[in-house]
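Hi support team,

I'm filing this because I wasn't sure whether my run with uracil finished correctly. The job status page said complete, but I'd like someone to confirm that the output block is well-formed before I use it downstream. Pasting the exact inputs I used:
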Amino acid sequence: MDKSIELKKLHTKWLAECVCKLKKTATRGVPGDGSAHAEIVFIGEAPGAKEDKEGRPFVGAAGKFLAEMLADVKMKREDIYITNIVKYRPPDNRDPLPKEIAACAKWLEEEIKLINPKLIVFLGRHSMNHFFPKEKISTVHGKLIIEPKWGKRQHFLPLYHPAAALYNGSLRATLKEDFAKIPLILKEIAKNPSTIFPLP
Ligand code: URA
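And here is everything the job wrote out:
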C-alpha cells in the first residue's frame, strides 16, 4: 500500500483510539501533516489555538516563522513532514503533562516508523526531552545526535522552538543559524548514512 494512504489510515485510527484526556477540552485532534515520503520529520510540542481551530500543525505565528526558515533553505512544507508530540491542544497552551505525552507516544512512534526519515528535527525541548530526557536544549541545539533507533542509525537535530525564538532577537538568530545547517546535514547523510561527521 502507498505510504500516503497508510499514513492517512494511521491518523484515522489514532484519532479514534487515542485516550488522551486533552480530547475533552480540545476542539479536534491535530495529526501530523506533509509528505509520507519526507526525508525530514519535524517534531513540535502541541497544537496552539489556530492549529486547534484548523486541524493542521504549525499554521499560526510559529508556523509562519517555520515556513520562512524552510524557504531560506529552499524547502517547501510539502517536502517535509511535521507533527507534534501531543496531538491535542493543552488548555491555555500550557506545557503538555507527562501522561499526555505518553498517551500520544505510540501514535508518534508509528508515524516516524512509517515515514522512516533520514533526519528528525526537534522543535524545542519538549520533543527533544521525550527522546533524550537528560539533554538541555541550550547545550545541544544545532548539534547532531546520532543514535541507534528503530533498527538503524537515526540522525536527530535539536533546535529551539520557533515560538520561543519569535520575539527574542538572539534566540531567533541562533535558530536561523542552526536551521541553515539542515541541507548540509542531509547531504552528508546521503553520502554516508553510517558516518559520524563534524558540523562546522
Ligand atoms: N507549536 C507547536 O509546537 N506545534 C504546533 O502545531 C503549533 C505551535
